[in-house]
Design goal:
The chain is about 40% helix and about 20% strand. It is built from 11 helices and 16 strands. The strands form 4 sheets. It has a 6-stranded antiparallel β-sheet. Strands 11-10-9-12-13-16 form a 6-stranded mixed β-sheet. The structure holds zinc ion.
Length: about 400
């Protein structure tokens, strides 16, 4: 089971329709929150309260003359907004999050629709039929026929996306061309260095996109930004600036994600046994001088992608002990020597080994002894845990 997220090609008319539905979902969620706070102290089970709220909404509130506008919109949206609120409460009571806030127009516009019984058959191609919303054109194609039940439509900087899960397994390729342990070092000048000498560089376009963002911010440094507390309205040009800014940020995020996905897939397909450093990322983020470099390097995402891809490609991802001195050890004679952070070449004082700093560290990671290594397994969603894997059945027969 995995999810697809595809960009929709929408015209202005559809764009408005999407925005109205997103607004409707937000309205329902906030209404559910308000109503729930009203009945919180009554001693009835939570699910019963939510059911009551749903009934009140459909039988009374929707029929009021001032809420007639809801009739033109999909009723699956309000039902799913209540479901979303219920799961937010569930997380809250299981101590996995705080009590939900009101949804705001500013952050995250999305809504969910589903087909109430059965599932939708999606035909391969560049169109998608979304239940109760109609048929839409896609920017990418769906590559195979598949089925799904629930569709979430969301907006990121003027672009609309549809996401849904399909019940299918990714078939793991049986052979990896390299099966020996492969180390990966988080570099400063390069994105990644593997122990066989392969080097991954961050794409140049990412760098230019970041420069463009910085230029935009600098040129608009004197804009009247507005302040709600002081009653200052933001200017029209500021609003234009904000729209441009979100687009630029989304563009950078997209480029970085694309690069990371591509690299991790490539690595997972080629190498069976991958070792990376177990860095204290939370600790590094707390240091504001290091934070930007750590986020830019995408190390956390890189590790997450490698780990969740490991069952698809049959790879083993291992984390090397945080205190292992991978950059201070000579990869040829294991001589330990202090290394300044800026040094790019490792010159061994004992055997004269002259080697690139990143490559040296990568080789060390690959050859580290097994007691300093722990296997990283992907976190499964509760849904995946329930389903038996196809291998489990075959094992039981014998
Ligand atoms: Zn040496």
């Amino acid at each position: 089971m995995y999810a697809l997220k595809l960009e929709l090609k929408v015209n202005n008319c559809e764009r408005t329709r999407m925005a109205r539905h997103a607004g409707y979902a937000r309205f329902c969620y906030n209404l559910a929150r308000t109503l729930y706070l009203g009945v919180m102290d009554i001693k009835v089970r939570r699910t019963r309260k939510i059911a009551l709220i749903k009934k009140t909404f459909t039988n009374f509130i929707k029929k009021e003359p001032e809420y007639q506008w809801t009739k033109t919109l999909s009723s699956r949206v309000d039902q799913n907004a209540f479901i979303a609120f219920n799961s937010a409460l569930e997380r809250f009571f299981k101590d996995r999050g705080g009590f939900s806030n009101f949804k705001r127009k500013k952050s995250g516009n999305s809504f969910t629709v589903d087909i109430s019984n059965g599932s939708v058959f999606l035909i391969a191609g560049n169109r998608i039929k979304i239940p109760t919303m109609g048929t839409f054109r896609l920017k990418e194609t769906i590559r195979y026929n598949c089925c799904s039940q629930t569709f979430t439509i969301s907006r990121t900087a003027d672009k609309w996306y549809v996401s849904f899960t399909i019940k299918a397994d990714k078939i793991p390729p049986l052979y990896h061309s390299v099966s020996a342990p492969t180390g990966r070092d988080l570099g400063v000048s390069t994105f990644a260095t593997l122990s066989d000498g392969t080097v991954y560089q961050l794409p140049y376009s990412l760098k230019t996109a970041k420069i463009k963002l910085r230029k935009l911010q600098y040129r608009n440094r004197n804009k009247q930004l507005g302040n709600r507390k002081l009653g200052i309205k933001s200017s029209k040009n500021t609003q234009k600036f904000y729209r441009k800014l979100t687009k630029k940020h989304a563009d950078i995020a997209q480029r970085q994600r694309h690069f990371l996905q591509k690299t991790t897939t490539e690595i997972s397909q080629q190498y069976a046994h991958i070792r990376i450093e177990d860095l204290n990322i939370c600790g590094m983020l707390a240091n504001h001088k290091l934070a930007a470099a750590v986020v830019d390097s995408g190390f956390y995402q890189f590790r997450r992608f490698l780990t969740y891809k490991s069952p698809f490609y049959g790879t083993i991802v291992e984390l090397v002990d945080r205190w292992y001195p991978s950059s201070k050890t000579c990869s040829r004679c294991s001589h330990l020597q202090p290394m300044p952070l800026q040094a790019r070449v490792f010159v061994c004082e004992a055997c004269g080994n002259n080697c690139n700093q990143d490559l040296n560290a990568a080789i060390n990671l690959a050859s580290v002894s097994n007691d300093r290594v722990r296997v990283r397994r992907p976190e499964l969603t509760p849904d995946q845990e329930k389903e038996p894997t196809p291998y489990a059945d075959t094992v039981r027969k014998f």
